[in-house]
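From the methods appendix. Each design record in this collection lists the tokenized structure first, followed by the designed amino acid sequence. Records were kept in a plain field format so they could be parsed without special tools. The example shown here is representative of the layout used throughout.

RECORD:
FOLD TOKENS (310 positions):
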């Protein structure tokens, strides 16, 4: 990105950040989801129509008849966000009315309970954006395990000494197999990349999916002041890499940390102020195994991007 474009984004953000969400929301201190939502609303603008399945956002956005969001909001049950968005998008098209229909769901309402409706909408090519803010557990109801929970993490339903032994579901590859219009991973610590991808999704038609890394202080058990640092380390460690997929076939890396690549131990905060205590029980051998899995997945992703680009 040209320097003048970056300065324009920074200037826009400094003047308008949060203009479509009020300061009266009820999110936790350091919440990655509400920070991401502010950026998303800035990028989408006032024509956004937000569909929210049961989640943390259902709570912090405000109780009826009040809302912290200054755009139309539709709250839905866990399983039906994508179905609701499909209906709204078809209604707008039928009435020739403007609007950017956007689902904003957590990992539980996206990878698990809401996946049936999302998969069906993707197969039909419904015209909306689906954004999953992934905090890697059912945080709103007590930090229960989801299929997005990483291997080795503590949750209230995988307490010590059980913990989660299964790998995280690869929702991006699953939706790429649906051949949808656009898929991208986004991260609020990489602001220019974040805005570009949301704007790209806004400019396309069909089903678009954005996957946001969303740190959660109470669920990940870290000091809230380190949310942005953990967001950045998630990318630098390749634990949550940045990439995009066009039409389910063309994969491309958005960022390669190169020689700035961080270790999984640094991302977990082993011996650091930003320690994620959901991983505090892991030994050296456990972290080495997770590091190998992350490295293997990173190499696989790079090969996939080379093949698709070639």
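DESIGN:
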């Amino acid at each position: 990105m040209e320097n003048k474009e970056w300065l324009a984004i920074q200037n826009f953000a400094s003047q308008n950040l949060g203009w479509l969400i009020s300061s009266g929301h009820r999110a936790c201190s350091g919440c990655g989801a509400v920070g991401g939502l502010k950026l998303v609303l800035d990028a989408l603008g006032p024509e956004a129509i937000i569909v929210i399945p049961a989640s943390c956002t259902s709570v912090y956005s405000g109780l009826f008849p009040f809302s912290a969001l200054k755009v139309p909001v539709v709250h839905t049950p866990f399983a039906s966000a994508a179905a609701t968005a499909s209906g709204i998008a078809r209604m707008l098209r039928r009435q020739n009315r403007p609007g950017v229909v956007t689902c904003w769901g957590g990992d539980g309402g996206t990878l698990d309970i809401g996946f049936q409706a999302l998969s069906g909408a993707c197969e039909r090519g419904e015209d909306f954006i689906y954004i999953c803010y992934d905090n890697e557990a059912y945080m709103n109801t007590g930090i229960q395990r989801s299929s997005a929970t990483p291997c080795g993490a503590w949750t209230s339903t995988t307490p010590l000494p059980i913990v989660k032994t299964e790998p995280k579901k690869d929702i991006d590859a699953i939706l790429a197999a649906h051949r949808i219009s656009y898929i991208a991973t986004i991260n609020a610590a990489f602001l220019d990349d974040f805005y570009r991808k949301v704007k790209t999704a806004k400019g396309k038609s069909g089903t678009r999916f954005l996957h946001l890394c969303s740190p959660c202080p109470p669920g990940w058990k870290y000091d809230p002041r380190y949310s942005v640092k953990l967001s950045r380390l998630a990318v630098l460690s390749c634990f949550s890499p940045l990439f995009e997929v066009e039409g389910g076939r063309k994969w491309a890396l958005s960022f390669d940390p190169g020689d700035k690549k961080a270790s999984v131990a640094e991302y977990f905060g082993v011996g650091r102020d930003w320690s994620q205590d959901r991983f505090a029980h892991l030994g050296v051998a456990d972290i080495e195994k997770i590091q190998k899995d992350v490295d293997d997945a990173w190499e696989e992703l790079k090969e996939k991007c080379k093949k698709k680009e070639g």
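APPENDIX NOTE: The chain has a mean pLDDT of 93.
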